[in-house]
Amino acid sequence: MVSQYGIKFAIHLITNHFGNLVAKVCEKLLGNGPLTLEQLIRYTELTKEQVKNSLLVLVQHNCAQAFVYEGGDGDGSRVRTQYLALFDNILHRLRFPKFLEIASRHLDDECVELLDGLLRDGRLTLKQMVDRASQGKENVVTTDVVRESLRKLLTARYVERCPVPEVVISTLVTEETTTKKRGAKSAKKFEAPETLEQRVIEATVPGEAIRFSLTTDAGCNADRETNSDDSQMMSVGENDAKEELTLWRANFEEFIRYLRHKVLIENVRTRMDDGAATVLSAILEATKTVEKKVKIENSGDLDSFPCEF
Question: Which of 44, 65, 131, 287 has the maximal Cβ count within 10 Å?
Answer without folding.
Answer: 65
